[in-house]
Amino acid sequence: MIIAALGIFNACEKSDELIDQSIDEQLLDVTKPDVYSENGYLAFKNIEAVDSIIKMLSRMTTLEIETWEKSMNINTARSEFEQLFSEYEDLSSYEEFLSFKSRNFEKLKFNDSDPEDNSINYPYATIHFLPVLNNKGLVKIGPSLIKYTKENQILVKNGDIDALSNLQENIENNNVIISTTLKSVSVDWNNMVVHDFPEDDPLGRNERWHMVDGVSKRRMINELIFENWRNYLGDTGSNSLWNLGFYVYFQQRCHKKTWTGWNSYTTKYYFDDLKLKVGSDPTVKFDPYTYITSPDRKTGRVQLARYQTSMPYILYQTPSFLSRPNLSISIMTSCQGFDISRAYYIDYIEHSGFSSDPGNLWPSTSTPTYE
Questions:
Q1: What is the b/e burial string over 95-109, where b = at least 16 CB atoms within 10 angstroms of the residue's CB?
Q2: pLDDT number for residue 307
Q3: pLDDT of res. 260
Q4: What is the largest CA-CA distance in the chain?
Q5: Under 8 Å CB-to-CB from 304, ≥6 apart: which residues?
Q6: CB under 8 Å to 5, separation ≥6 — which residues?
Q7: pLDDT at residue number 23
Q8: Are 190 and 228 in contact (CB under 8 A)?
Q9: Which of 78, 151, 304, 311 is the most buried (most CB within 10 A)?
Q10: Nearest-CA neighbor of 319 among 204, 223, 177?
Q11: Helix and strand counts by DSSP (H, E) for the chain
């Protein structure tokens, strides 16, 4: 198995060209058939085009992203979330928060399992594809229409949006495939969080939400994310063709303590001294001269690895997601609320000998950074 480190995309040289061009040139380049708007969602020629656009968007300012979204005539998940987050930041009491939650329960994800956690998040079961979803969780890749919900991915093989209004019939006709991320459901389980480092809590509490000495109103969670995906390409003869792949991310989220409890907020994130091993690939390390700082973000997110393969399956057979390879990581982490001076190490190891493995230098053409 060959793992592509951050920034290396299979068969998609166009991504680097898109990043190097001015925004106006990018808007001209990203046209049919690579990506276009259809029925209020983005439609992509293939997964390579998706990754190219996500990479392009990660290099843009907020204003440039808004310009691009307007040019595509799309109401994105990002734009809706930003509007709701602005309203959320203006709340001044717990009663106002409860009213906000009631009004927006379908549009946002709330943590009902923790009465002190009043943060908000996107209501979609994906990390990687968030930048290209519309405000209904829809995106089209090749012939297939994909809809993300809070717990599921719904794949419509023929791309007909009307199939979403008649799911049972289309499931029976093998046109719709529902993949769940719910932990309580074992069939086709695709839970994304591999590890959240409770054993590395700086205060020794074995808590997944970390705190540091001297800072009582900030907390941070670090997550190693593994996101599987599959995409239907069409039928040929007696076979169905599919793309299968996965992404590996390191994700940081911070909360601040306010009137309602723990709330989401915008801040800067830091990482340094990264070492990673995926499957049987060699260990790679990234130790910059100084720590890497994110722009102001609600979530700090770094793509670490990507893998993709294409293969035929028996006609009408749905392939399982790829098995997760062993993952090992060590990294220094912090956020602005903690301050870089309080950065600390976390690790998660599934490979024997990883701790003593010096690792190879991360390819200079694809060094990891925040999206």
A1: eebeebbeebeeebe
A2: 95
A3: 74
A4: 66
A5: 5, 6, 248, 249, 250, 276, 278, 329, 368
A6: 284, 304, 305, 306, 362, 363, 366, 368
A7: 53
A8: yes
A9: 304
A10: 177
A11: 7, 21
pLDDT of 46 above 90 = yes
Residue 138, C-beta contacts closer than 8 angstroms, at least 6 positions apart: 40, 41, 145, 146, 147, 148, 161
How far, in Å, CA of 104 to CA of 89, rounded? 14
CA angle 190, 165, 313 (to 5 degrees): 45
DSSP string, 299-365: EEEEEEEEEEEEEEEETTPPPPPPPPPPEEEEEEEEETTT-GGG-EEEEE--STTTTT---EEPPGG
CA separation for the pair 333, 22 (Å, rounded): 33
| CA 131 to chain CA mean position, Å | 8
Q: CA–CA separation, 319 vs 134, rounded Å?
A: 26
Which residue type occupies 275? Answer: K
119, 266 contact by CB (below 8 A): no
Please enumerate in sequence order all residues whose Cβ is within 8 A of that of 36, keeping only pairs 6 or more positions apart, or say none: 42, 43, 72
